[in-house]
Each structure stands twice: as structure tokens, then as C-alpha cells.
What we know:
This protein is α/β, with parallel strands linked by helices.
Amino acid sequence: MTGLGLVTPAGCDRDTTWSAVRAGRATAAPDPLLHGLPVSLSCRVPELDHPVLRRRGSAHLDPVDRFGLAAVAQALDQAGLDPREWDGGRVAVVTGGGVGGVLTQDKALARLGELGPEFVSPYFLPGYLINMTCANIALRFGVTGPALATSTACASGTTALGVARDLLATGRCDIALVCGADAAVTRLMVTGFSQLGALSDTGSRPFDTARDGFVIAEGAGALVLERPQHAAARSARPLARLIGHAATTDAHHLVAPDPEGRGAERAVRAALADAAVAAEDVGHVNAHGTSTRQNDAVEAAVLRRVFPHRPPVTSAKGALGHTLGASGAVEAALTVLALAEGIVPPTAGLAETDPGAGIDVVSGTARTQSAQVAVSNSFGFGGHNAVAVLALP
């Protein structure tokens, strides 16, 4: 990993986002656009302005594509890569997303109902389809190698990391641009999650005894992955290494995790085996930590079984809310920053750790932790589990 970019409710760049997460600052706020719904709390991205979005063709982009483009542009800048100078055929794009351009869909549906089909914009489908974040990144940065869009619900960003790693390992490309992005803070999506009982209207508090659901959020995370030989040839400074990845499926229920966490546990153990590291080598865990009753209990049980040495655990969703398909990439980037700085950020919103959790969840202030290896978990509706193992260079 040679570059990373972040667009989140805490800020539209890497440094502001990391500052808020490191300080344990929650970003949830009442959302006027959700007025009248059972839940009206959200975590929205602040006003976004980036040079990549001032170019021709940007005016009709859905927010999900705007977030993704800005995050990738940041990551390329940090990596020191200029798309005007690369062989686009040796570059891949892999994106992860849960829902696509749902705001564009909402607008098109409203115009269809109110005015008729002739008033639906021709930009509707290019703004809505779930592959369009991937397509826009490839188009904007001149990528002509593999361009793949993955969708495994809230595991999508971490799934994208694994697909990109495999493309690099098999020699299909030298550089892979990985981006997780979602922009699902719409009245219909919020209603859908609320009907499932997944949302909180008081705040996100992962692993807290009083947790009652997540706060819906939007944003994007991007990472530049390179083959080691390619990075070395251009004297790039690696930020971290993706040394292990695994994915499994629960095959238990469409929206509930396996109560025993068997699929999640297999994913964590397989990722460690892929990385050739022992469980005790893991210095901290970036938990999926959604702040729902079921997910946190199941994940805590998995962590107890796999990591009896009780490494410190954190969840960024206390600060940023749940960015859905973006969360895996966002949290992988945050894990890289935590490793580099030698800390584990606190879990915002956590006041009293659930006594049944039995894990060491960091709260209050960041904890100094000189770790070489960390694990980042992502679990999604449909029983999708994806786990990444990250290490310092």
C-alpha cells in the first residue's frame, strides 16, 4: 500500500478524518432531510470540493461517485503516481459498494411519478448503476486494465482489497486502485434499515451495554496497492503491506449473522493463515463493530476464541457511523494509519463495555500500541465475511 485517501463525515481528506477518529469524536447529527422518519440521525460528508471534481463530466455525478473519485485522487497523490505517465493497461480498479447511486435513483423515480417518463434524465442509469463508481474512476484516470465492481454489502470494501491483491499476485496488473464507496443516506434507505431495527436514533456506541443500532453514514476510502517490485522500481515508500485476506459466507440468514459466528471465525483464521502469522502476533483489531446487539455480541465471541491474548479492539463506526459498502476500505486505511502512528484509536460513544463481550475495547482516549500486525474485519448482510491482515512495511 503506497497511498490512501478518505472522504468521510469527519472530513473530506485523510488528516481531518484521522484526527477525529484518533480523538474519538462522534460525527452523528440530526438530519433535516430525514425529518418525519422513525430515525433522523445520520453521519453526512461535509461539503466536498476537490480539483478532480471540477473537470468536465462531473456535474451529473451521484455523490457516491464524487466521494470515490476524490478519495482515489488523494491516494494517488500520496503514492506519487501520475496517471498521465503510467501504462493504463497495467493498472486495475476494484471498487466495493453496497447500493450504488440511490440518490440519483430517488430523483429519477420522483420525476417519473410527477412528470412522466420523458422527464427522466438520461443521466439516471449512469448515475445509479453500482459499477459506475468503478467506471468513473477508470475513465477519469485512464485505467484500461481490469475494472471490477464488487458488492458484498458491508463487507464490500474489504472484498475489493482481496480481489485487488489477487490481481496483483497473478501478474494481471502492477498497480490496483481500490475504493469502497457508498452514499445511502436517503429517506428510502433509512426507512429500510429502520424497518429491520438496525438503526439508532441516539448514537453509535459499538460494544456498549446500551447499544441499540448503528447510525447510517456515507463516504469513501481508497488505497493504492502495488506489486512490491513495481513500488521498489520507482522508489515508492510503502505505508503498509496487505499480507493476508480471506472471505467466507455464513449461509445462515439474509440479514442476521450466524449466532455462533462460525463463518466470521473461519474468515479470521483463514486470513491469519494466508498471512502466515499466529493469532498472538496480532497487535490490534479493527472490529466491524456496528453497534447492533447481534453483530457486536457475535463478533466479540469470535475475537475471544481466536485471540485469547486479548489485543486491543476498536471500532471506527462510533466516530464515523456505518458507511456500509465503504466501511471496509475506510477502516483498512484507518488501520494503516494506526499502525504507522503506533496507537489504537478509541471507540467513540462507548461508555460502558458490555460485560459479556470479554474483549479489550479501547475507549476514552487513544492507546499507545506498538504493533506490527493488525486485523480489520468486515461482515455484511447476506452472510458475507471478509477479513484483511495488515502489517507495517
